[in-house]
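Good day; I would like, with your permission, to put a structural problem before you. What I wish to show you is a protein chain and, alongside it, a tokenised description of its three-dimensional fold. Please examine both parts with care and let me know of anything in them that strikes you as inconsistent. Thank you for your consideration; the sequence and its tokens are set out here:

***
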Amino acid sequence: MIALKITNVKQFMGKLLGGDDFDSFLLEEASISTYNTFQIDGRQNKAFYTSEEWEDRELRPYDFTQWKVIRPVCFDLIKGRRTPASFQFVLHLIPEYTASILKKGDTGVTPQQVKGFVLNIRYDGTGLTLVTGTSYHTFLMDKLPDALWDQSVRQFLAKRDIAFEEL
């Protein structure tokens, strides 16, 4: 787990909300405080779907909503003349990328053991911080996947010219 301070918040927000840079993520949850506080649960709502649709993994491939689908909603809640009081997004890397992260190191951890590579994005009114995390289906002694995810996030940001400082 690492914490990174984003040094150019406006540029980062343009990439997060205005482009497809983060479309390889799923939204677990969001909290956006502007004139109201909006809470978004990114888990797909079973009651919305027919039973056939719910079981159709092509129609609904993930348990969480794809960032590219919910991004415009978040953008509409944040845009305006005033900066939000705060916001937080909890994003998960799309599971198809888990194996490629694990292949970067010599680990015995399989993609099936990793529940999610997580990226927490927090803005508190003064600064924006990213915190990485890894969620497993069971306890594992091997912490190399955590380090591999941390390095992947650093590379992800650098490739997109997003400046950051490690905290």
Notes: The chain has one domain: 3-166. The mean pLDDT is 95. The first strand starts at residue 3 and ends at 6. The first helix runs from residue 9 to 18.
